[in-house]
Every structure is written in C-alpha cells, then in structure tokens.
Amino acid sequence: MTIGVQPLLGYNYGTQNLSRIRAALRKLTFLTIVVGCSLALVCCLYVKTIVSLFLKEPEALAIGQKMVEILVLTGPFLGIYYIASSFLQAIGHAKSVSLVSLLRQGIFLVPLLVIMDRFMGQMENIWAVILSDIAAASIAVVIAVWHYNIIKKNFAHN
Asked: Is the pTM of this model over 0.70?
C-alpha cells in the first residue's frame, strides 16, 4: 500500500502538483491507520489461533501469544514510517531515505536490545522493537514534514 503510492507521489512532485501530493498522503495515512488498527484488533482477538498455527508446545505458545499481542501495537506506526519513507524516495531525497531506513533496525533497535536485555531481561526485549518502531516512525514523520514544507515553499516560488 505505502510503497505502491510512490510513483503517484513522484509524478506529482515532478509536475509540482502539491495538492495531489497532500491529498494522496492524507488518504494513505488514514487508510494505513485504519488497516493497521483493524489488523491489530484481529490479531489480538484471534492471537491464540494464529500463534497455534506455528507453535504447539504450551510454553512456546504462551510466549508467542504475548509477543504477538505486543508487536501488533506498532502496526499503525509502521505504516506511517513507510509512508514517510516512500514520500522521501518519491521526491528524491536519498540521504534522508537512507537515514530513515537505518533508524528502525540499526540506530534504535540494536542498542535498545542490548540495553533492555541488560536491565529488563530477555523476555522484555520485545519492548525494544516497539520503542524502536515508534521512535523511527516519529523521526521519519518529522523529516518528511520538513521536506514537505521545503517543497511547498519551492513550489510557491515557481
């Protein structure tokens, strides 16, 4: 969904059609949040069924259920993260896209895993994924909005 909109954003960036970029981003953000929340709800309601498709041992099943219940909380945030990334790619800001790509797994997740394992224990490492996703999505949005405001000013002067 979020990657598929990249050509639309890129085309409208090239034609300096800011209103279509804004409309596409708004609709995509709404759709991403609705789908992310809906899928998270379905996963939470049917967590035991979903996890039992992959795990059979009671202890592993209990751990898997807890992990799924926690991980689905980031669904809407990840969608927004990918919207920001697709937008930055569409407008040709390679350095910003590279930074945004590194944020989630490299800059935030690895250090958080090390820190949280040391202070909270291995089972609580799952929260490092949540914190990493939320932090990366927040910074990606700030970077995307910053670039959006720059192109808005540039388009106004042309």
From this structure: yes
Candidates 100, 75, 74, 95; CA nearest to 85 is 100
Q: What would the two tokens of residue 27 be?
A: 């609709």
Tokens at 126, concatenated:
């799952």
Rounded distance, CA 95 to CA 44, Å? 37
User: Percentage of residues in the chain with pLDDT exceeding 70?
Assistant: 98
Tally of CB atoms within 10 A around 157: 5
| Residue 28 contacts residue 83 (beta carbons within 8 Å) | yes
pLDDT digits (tens, 9 = 90+) for 14-70: 999 999 999 999 999 999 999 999 999 999 999 999 999 998 899 989 888 988 888
Residues ≥6 apart with Cβ < 8 Å to 79: 1, 2, 32, 33, 35, 36
CA distance readout (Å), 89 to 5, 93, 99: 11, 6, 12
Residue 55 is given by DSSP the state -
Helices (H) and strands (E) in the chain, counts: 8, 0
